[in-house]
What does this fold into?
Amino acid sequence: MKKEKSFIVGLDELDLVVAFLKDQFKFCRVFAFYGPLGAGKTTLVRRLLCGSGITDPITSPTFTYLNLYKNDAGQTFCHFDLYRIEKLKDFLAAGFDEYLHDGQNVVLVEWPEVIEPLLRENICRIKIDYDQDPDKREIRCVISYKSE
It folds into this structure.
């Protein structure tokens, strides 16, 4: 099954997107964030984590590739930034694919292009663009999941 939703929002309206994405947790465990440098991928991930009850400082894992967070309900969030990973085999060699298939974690991946072959089902792809207006973002969410 596939569904799509698009938003055109400013930074002060990201809560609309966050609410929609949180609602997708029941269908998807992996959320892939696409967009050019400076589009707002990390900002949206940060807002989603805060909206999901994460109270720890949220930083971009640009150099560590992965940050793990847990909310008070015991839900684990894996935040990947794959900007510096050049090959799928590097991702696999690090054992990061285990997080994708865990089934319990919510996995948030910035720059997921390198691992696209691993993103098969129960995926929410979020494409962020800001070509028209630098103060607004067009955010297109495509959810692909197995219907029960």
